[in-house]
Design a protein that fits this description.
Blueprint lengths: L15 E6 L8 E6 L7 E7 L5 E10 L5 E8 L3 E8 L15 E9 L6 E6 L10 E6 L4 E11 L5 E8 L3 E8 L9 E10 L6 E5 L9 E7 L4 E11 L7 E9 L2 E8 L9 E10 L1
Antiparallel strand pairs: 1-2, 2-7, 3-6, 4-7, 4-17, 5-6, 5-10, 8-13, 9-12, 10-13, 11-12, 11-16, 14-19, 15-18, 16-19, 17-18
């Protein structure tokens, strides 16, 4: 059972900040990472900024510690920053105010020089009660631009709704989420964000890594890798789990050179059915 503790609205200041240059045909490409403290606060968030007037073209995040007891609420790109927020949830063996284990939110902004026609667009699903069903929405880039990166956020999920998908089409970003298995009677919505850039971004393409297996392992990761001569600049995921879509919680989208790794873990109740993890990487010439 997932219960809402993630709506306290507090943004925790970053405790670490690192910047990693990346040699690429995308001018000014750099990865910047910030993190919250490592503690057991019920909600925490961190915003990481691009330096020197650079613009966000992608992003990633990682929920470190207390796996299965924290849920992603916000992964929101803006022109100069990426905001990642998450909250503790209540499950078997956890106290009513969330897990006692320490955990941390890490956010990564993929930054580059401003591109002509660059913009971020969003789309939000209907805000309503849906009797336990999943909900999805697609953000579409304007004509002449392609989806480079993206993000997803929940409204009124209160820890009882979990993101299940963030996937890229040629000029679209698809986001989906699902409520927990014991029912959620409050209205909620999901928002998709598309980071859009001109079609001339060198070598822009998307590569999928489909699940190597589907079983009831408590945790798994998949890594999608760009072809030789390319660099990862963004990524997405999809958790496939049969009927109880929020019994597995996405816990990370991280980058390493040409790869994007998506990770997920079963919630504190566990999940007896088979499930799999799909990873997607957005690539550009290096």
């Amino acid at each position: 059972m997932l219960r809402g503790l993630a709506a306290l609205g507090m943004v925790v200041a970053a405790t670490t900040l690192t910047a990693t240059p990346a040699s690429a045909a995308v001018p000014g490409l750099i990865f910047v990472t910030a993190a919250t403290g490592f503690d057991s606060n019920v909600y925490k968030a961190v915003r990481v900024f691009c330096p020197n007037g650079l613009k966000v073209i992608g992003g990633g995040y990682q929920l470190v510690g207390a796996e299965g007891s924290v849920v992603l609420d916000d992964f929101i790109p803006s022109e100069d920053s990426v905001l990642v927020g998450a909250g503790e949830v209540v499950g078997v063996g956890e106290p009513s105010d969330g897990t006692t284990a320490s955990w941390q939110v890490r956010a990564t902004a993929v930054c580059a020089n401003a591109l002509p026609g660059y913009q971020i667009v969003s789309a939000t699903s209907q805000f309503r009660t849906d009797n336990g069903h999943a909900r999805a929405v697609t953000a579409t880039c304007p004509a002449g631009t392609l989806a480079v990166g993206g993000g997803e956020s929940l409204s009124n999920g209160f820890g009882q709704v979990s993101p299940t998908d963030l996937q890229f089409g040629t000029n679209t970003v698809y986001a989906a989420a699902a409520p927990d298995d014991d029912g959620y009677t409050q209205p909620w919505s999901v928002t998709a964000y598309a980071i859009c850039a001109p079609a001339g971004l060198p070598g822009l393409q998307r590569v999928y890594k489909f699940p190597t297996t589907q079983n009831s392992d408590p945790r798994r990761s998949e890594t999608a890798v760009c072809p030789a001569g390319q660099q990862a600049i963004g990524g997405g995921w999809s958790v496939s789990q049969g009927i109880l879509a929020s019994e597995v919680l996405n816990i990370g989208l991280t980058f390493s050179g040409a790869g994007a790794t998506a990770s997920a873990a079963e919630d504190a109740n566990g999940y007896s059915q088979s499930w799999g993890m799909l990873a997607q990487v957005v690539c550009a010439d290096s």
